[in-house]
Amino acid sequence: MERDLEQLNSALNSVKILRSNVRRVFESVSNGLRADHGDDGKESKYILELQELLTTVNNNLRDVENSMSNLTPPPGPFSLGNTTYLSQETTQERQALYGQLVNTYKWTDKIREYSALAGNILAANSFNKTYKTFSTTKRRKTQTSNHNVPPEVIENLITSIDRLFPDVTITTNSPFVPNPVIQGRVLKAIIAFKGLMIEWVVVKAHAESNDLWTESRYKVFRKVTENCHAAMCHFYSPMMPELAVRSFLHWFHSYNTLFSAPCKRCANHLHNNLPPTWRDLRNLEPYHEECK
User: What UniProt keywords are attached to this protein's entry (predicted)?
Assistant: First the structure.
């Protein structure tokens, strides 16, 4: 396979050189006699120059033929049935359909090949046995959805979490859809809940609005928002939603040292004019985006 690619690359380079020298021939023919040919015998100089260019083109053409002869021919014609007549269309828009159709067929063949390989890999695993084991056992009782809980449950959860962090203030603005605002020493976060699950987080400065759908105008808080979305997905746990919320807020609490803690790897406070905006999901240590 690697040898075929090298031969193909050599053939393409030969074609590129041939096209470049052919262009030089046409430029010489279009320019005709020039001032640099001089006054004496300029016709013979021009003809000699043109002969040298044509000789070079002839040698390049021989190189292209040699490179093409080393290539492995395709296994057979790519049959498209009646669609081959698309190449005989007179309008330029319809002529392009043939090349697009060829690429589509090739892409479909690759999808079919990859699907067959994926099917063989899945068939070799024990998924079918696991499915049979669970299907034969007694069906467990359907659990209550974590999205359909009364607002009081969410408020009680927020109140209990608020007691864990004395240096953080958690307030709710709406009695029906509680979107708590978590205010720390250097930033604040507005969190949207869907039941007991965190659905959205936006981090802003203290002086900015509490609008959930407007991002911060500061780049550092936009970076922290992106990392909060990653942590929100990391701590996501439908089976233990309260633990997921507590774990996320415990991780977010580490941003109280956003502008004071140096990066754990480079030991610098700033990198590309930004503090360490990432907190490790396990040990909560600060890192720059480029150092994590």
Answer: Nucleus, Transcription, Transcription regulation
